[in-house]
Amino acid sequence: MSKPVKITSPDQLSSLLSSSRIVVVNFYNEWSGVSRAVASVYDQLATQLSRANIVTFTNVNAEQQSQIAQTYGVTSAPTFIIFKNGNQIQRIIGANLQQLSEAIKRLATEAESDGSSGGFGEASSSSGGPWRGADVPRGYNDVTDQVDVRGLDLLNADSDFGGVRTLFEITQPTTLAMGKGKRAASGSEGKKDWVVSDVDEQLMLYMPFTSTLKVHTIQITAAPSSSEDDEDAPMRPRTVHIYTNRQHNLGFEEAEDLPATQTIEFKPSDWDEKTATAKLELRFVKFQSVYSLVLFVASGEGDGEKTRIDRIRIIGESGEKREMGKLQKAGDDS
Q1: Do 146 and 320 meet the contact criterion of CB atoms below 8 Å apart?
Q2: In CATH, which superfamily holds the domain spanning 141-321?
Q3: What range(s) does the PITH domain occupy (predicted)?
């Protein structure tokens, strides 16, 4: 049990990231009233949850340590970044102490009960952080934690499979965790932690964000069928239309008539064989101030009747935290 460690150099922080399994960093400013207001509660969390070489709390003065703030893309205070095994796994902007407390308590419990995997599943690399199906481009972060799961909406999903929040789970899809032979043998048994369309191949997903984002890439994971002879197996997405800054989900007929911000046509070669993941590389200039996205899966890659998605990851930069009670004006869409 201890108080937060004051960080006075980049090397000091790097050393802690190497020696402590979980590191919580509070980027603050002396002049920020919000930073001062949350300081006492943050200190209490540190006193309660710090564990030597397991959970370490730190404070970084964002102005005095501008190099560190710039390295991690911190532009406002307070900003809390949680690292696991040296990798950033969550970023919380503003005074959302309940979210911070819940995240740290969960991680502390996992770290103490399972020193190897920490309950996160196997990542595509050996990072030990949340699973993702592809590398993050240099200079950007996984900002999937900025998805406001309370506002998610998914149309035409088969209720026999996972719900919309399944798409944003931090664990590796169970289908990928098993070998191909085991997948074929298991059939439809076990946890169905993926989404499948219902009456046809189309899906309509609405994703609001808790912060305004610059979105660089969207990663979509869709496991292939375990049997090439299964004609009824769900397909991977082929045509995906993306819409920005909508107030709510679109209807299918509405989307057909609305120009998309960008349309992606996947080829079979776009899907990584090991992770079953394809990257939607966006026209970055069109995705600079994004507070919501709609993904319209218009067609699948084959002649089947249903489409499947296992996971979605959002890659980019997080900016100013949104005031969720205030809606942008209709017509602000990019």
Answers
A1: no
A2: PITH domain (2.60.120.470)
A3: 132-334
Q: What is the pLDDT of residues 165-177, one digit of tens each?
A: 999 987 888 888 7
Q: Quick check: 82 and 89 in contact, CB under 8 A?
A: yes
Structure letter (DSSP) for residue 201: S
Report in angstroms the alpha-carbon separations of 95 from 34, 40, 78. 7, 12, 7
Q: Tell me the whole-structure pTM to 2 decimals.
A: 0.61
Using the predicted structure, report yes or no on whether residue 214 has a pLDDT greater than 70.
Answer: yes
In CATH, the number for domain 5-113 is 3.40.30.10
Structure tokens at 111: 């770290």
d(CA 11, CA 69): 13
152: left (phi over 0), alpha (psi -120 to 50) or beta: beta
* Tally of CA atoms within 13 A in the half-sphere of 26 that contains its CB: 30
Spatial neighbors of 306 by CB under 8 A, at least 6 apart, are 158, 196, 197, 198, 200, 201, 232, 234, 235, 300
Query: 134: which 2 tokens?
Result: 């592809």
Enumerate the CATH 2.60.120.470 domain ranges in the chain, comma separated: 141-321
Residue recorded with tokens 């960080």 = 7
Distances (CA, A) of 136 to 129, 147, 218, 264, 329: 13, 17, 10, 19, 32
Cβ neighbours for 87, distance < 8 A, ≥ 6 positions apart: 127, 128, 129
Contact 312, 215 (CB under 8 A): no
Supply 1's token pair: 């049990």
Residue 284 DSSP code: G
- Asked whether the beta carbons of 2 and 16 are under 8 A apart, the reply is no
**Cα angle: 215, vertex 313, 96; to 5 degrees:** 80
